[in-house]
Design goal:
Shape: globular
Structural class: mainly alpha
Distance between the termini: 28 Å
Number of helices: 10
Helix content: over 70%
Length: 230
């Protein structure tokens, strides 16, 4: 536990030094401006879910991937082979740091758009679960790339694929086609934060995010071990 806390402190220092927190604050302010502009449109809650979903998804996916890739290119990861640092702590530290930042940004956006009138438990679970899920995906993706440009190129395509469940959410296609997509559970849980949903859909949101996060963590750990051997 002590090692994890030390890593967490160091990750917050790196996030501050690399201006990730500042970028997150700026993006949050921009989103708040968008919320104020769309308050009067129909189905504003659906647009709200789309916008808020993007923040933890992008934060977990892009910043985890780019951050670890830079450490990989600087040979920091290779040094872990001969260090007492636990691989699990390294992964969890980065996931927890970004999840906390993402949660803060998401709460501010939700308050700006809806006030305190939303289901806090569902919202917190969706924010943290989405950030961690996409963070694990970021760890997995970097095992097969060697530059930031290559990562961004491949991540753009993967992010589009991960976001396909929004076709079901906006009723362009039947939602049932996307039940095996990891992002579907996240969307359902965010949606349950703002509107009344069925118990089946709510249970799917919680169970789906939990299962996909467990799978993501195991694959991320395998990908991380692959990275430090190169």
């Amino acid at each position: 536990m002590r090692q994890l806390l030390q890593l967490l402190k160091w990750d917050f220092i790196l996030l501050t030094r690399n201006q990730i927190i500042l970028i997150s604050v700026i993006v949050t302010i921009l989103y708040i401006g968008i919320f104020q502009a769309i308050k009067g449109i129909e189905e504003v809650d659906k647009v709200l879910v789309l916008i808020i979903f993007n923040d933890p998804a992008l934060l977990g996916f892009i910043f985890i991937g780019v951050g670890v890739l830079l450490e990989k290119n600087e040979h920091t990861l290779q040094a872990l082979v001969v260090s007492p640092l636990k691989e699990v702590n390294y992964i969890l530290s980065k996931i927890i740091a970004l999840s906390l930042i993402s949660l803060g940004c998401c709460v501010v956006m939700a308050l700006a758009a809806k006030g305190p009138n939303f289901h806090w438990i569902h919202f917190v679970a969706a924010s943290i679960g989405t950030t961690s899920l996409f963070g694990f995906v970021g760890f997995i993706l970097i095992s097969n790339v060697h530059s930031v440009n290559e990562f961004i190129l491949k991540s753009a395509l993967l992010f589009i694929i991960m976001g396909l469940p929004f076709l079901g959410y906006f009723e362009v296609m039947d939602r049932v086609y996307f039940l095996l997509f990891p992002a579907q559970a996240s969307i359902d849980l965010f949606n349950a934060s703002f509107v009344q949903t069925s118990l089946i859909q709510l249970s799917y949101g919680y169970m789906g995010l939990l299962i996909w996060n467990v799978i993501g963590f195991r694959l991320a750990l395998r990908a991380f071990r692959k990275n430090i051997k190169r």
